[in-house]
Amino acid sequence: MAARRTCVRIWSYIDDNNENNDEAAGKWTSRPEHFHLLWMLFYLKTGSTEDVACSYWGVDGNTFRKWVWLLIEKISNVNSIVSTNNTHRK
Fold this sequence. Notes:
The protein has helices at residues 2-17, 34-46, 50-57, 61-75. It is an all-alpha fold and 90 residues long.
């Protein structure tokens, strides 16, 4: 359940700040979709090569690279996405 809440927080941050980020304004040609977040999380969790990730998701390298790195840049300076109130279950 905590992972789902974290994903919702990340998506909310990305979605809420998409148009307010002057630095990235020229990089966003369209709004990110939920599956772009999945690509980024997959890339960060697995550490897969771009070829492996593109094959897994059935997307070309340019598209994958564009969205993964835009979203990584978007959340890179955020310190409070993951709540400290999450409890660890045994």
